[in-house]
Amino acid sequence: MAGKSPQSMFHRTLCHLLVTNSILTVVTVAAAAAVLWTTWPVDVVSLLRAQRPVHVLLAAILMAAMARMCRPRDVYLVEYGCFRPNPRFRAPLATCREHARLMPYLIDEESVSFALRLLERSGLGDDTCVPDAYHYMPPDRSLQASREESEQVVFSAIDDVFARTTAVKAADIDVLIVNCSIFAPTPVISDMVANRYKLRADVQNVNLSGMGCSACLVSVGLAKNLLQVAPPGTHVLIVTTEILSSQYYVGTERAMLLPNCLFRMGAAAMILSNSPDRARFKLGRVVRTVTAARDDDYRCVFQEEDDEGITGIRLSKDLATTAGHALKSNIAAFGPLVLPASEQLLVALSLLKRKFLSGRAKVKLYRPNFRTVFEHFCIHAGGRGVIDEVQQGLSLSDEDVEASRMTLHRFGNTSSSSVMYELAYIEAKGRMRKGDRVWMISFGAGFDCNSVAWECIEPAADADGPWADCIHRYPMQLPEVVKDM
């Protein structure tokens, strides 16, 4: 393996898995057809020929109707909304620098310098926001502070989604799914939502935790499974957020200081339904990959205590590489479901050339072009390194990852809700068109990688979302130091 770049290994393994999956599918279908042809009872064929055409037609219509009834229902995104932070929550670099030097537990200059260098090269701009608790010195890590932040960001996002659609009211919600990785009070946040909006007593209530930045798309997958078997007209409200107040790390471990520098406040809410009425997007393929069986992946994002007994989240220095490995496995399952036959054939041919032609090291493996399938990409804004890894692995252009980079710059890493801020960016720029397809990619603790495909039915009528007051400033040229870190 020596001498081969991670990108080369990525594409070689991906091509092999894509081809293997495709060949197995073709062989299975061909074998099934052969068996059916050789074992089909002759008397059944004769019986069909003896029937009146009208009877055969009625039977065919009945079978088609039954098949349609048994087919899983399509799932749609009716509307979504995002928390738009007030400017008073801003945490510009100058403020972070001042606070870092005034914090008693970061008194050593080495830790302060590390945190500031990280912030300067992180890709975050001066308009990212942190909760009230972070503006105190020392930060307010109380339970009350976390509850107040929860109510602020969650209720704001839900109010926004209900304000953006007249098709669904709080009384129409049948299922509520809330995800927040770290903060899980009693009662849970989903009960907080049910109480605030006076949801019906028969609402199915689910609260997910511990899944990190991938939880939004995990929730979408759960909602899809529920809606495909639910009665027509069922509505699911998804709320995705990460509450920061009580999770501020007050130690000096560098790997545990990273979340303090990267994560920012945010939340999003979505209404999904199995009815196309007034829907804006149609849900396509959903693929989830969990690599927790690998010890390094399992501990890549890990909550634990440092040597001083202070609890925090430790982010591995190999986070971007781990994300690349998880993405590779995810694409091996997702690619054959979405790529056209022409792309899969090109992958197969390049792999065959590499295998059978002399001087095969010189044969360049074909990289599947996902731009033939998707017009837009929403890659979790987990950090500059994560976005770089995905861009290189999928051979995406700077324009393809613009929404991710600009979201990281304007809002920071808002955890699981970041992909929704990216979708809002694309719509605010007026780039979404009817029929456009969107690929959302998220990563989370576990290690977890999720892919979700959407097809636009009705673009947003305006840019009145989280980008309303700043979209005119984007895209902007990021400092070179951000790209070179």
Give a concise summary.
It contains 16 helices and 11 strands. The chain has helices spanning 6-39, 42-50, 53-70, 93-102, 109-120, 143-163, 189-197, 215-227, 254-262, 295-298, 319-338, 341-356, 384-394, 402-411, 418-428, 480-484, and strands at residues 76-82, 175-180, 204-208, 235-241, 267-273, 281-290, 301-305, 311-315, 376-379, 437-444, 448-456.
Task: Write up this protein.
With 485 residues, the protein is α/β, with parallel strands linked by helices. 44% of the residues lie in helices and 15% in strands. The chain contains 16 helices and eleven strands. It has helices spanning 6-39, 42-50, 53-70, 93-102, 109-120, 143-163, 189-197, 215-227, 254-262, 295-298, 319-338, 341-356, 384-394, 402-411, 418-428, 480-484, and strands at residues 76-82, 175-180, 204-208, 235-241, 267-273, 281-290, 301-305, 311-315, 376-379, 437-444, 448-456. A nine-stranded mixed β-sheet has the order 3-2-4-5-1-6-11-10-9, with helices on both faces. Helix 1 (6-39) runs parallel beside helix 11, helix 5 (109-120) packs across helix 9 (254-262) and helix 11 (319-338) packs parallel to helix 13.
Secondary-structure blueprint of this entry?
Blueprint: H1 6-39, H2 42-50, H3 53-70, E1 76-82, H4 93-102, H5 109-120, H6 143-163, E2 175-180, H7 189-197, E3 204-208, H8 215-227, E4 235-241, H9 254-262, E5 267-273, E6 281-290, H10 295-298, E7 301-305, E8 311-315, H11 319-338, H12 341-356, E9 376-379, H13 384-394, H14 402-411, H15 418-428, E10 437-444, E11 448-456, H16 480-484
Parallel strand pairs: 2-3, 2-4, 9-10
Antiparallel strand pairs: 1-5, 1-6, 4-5, 6-11, 7-8, 10-11
Helix pairs in contact: 1-11, 1-12, 4-5, 5-9, 6-7, 11-13, 14-15
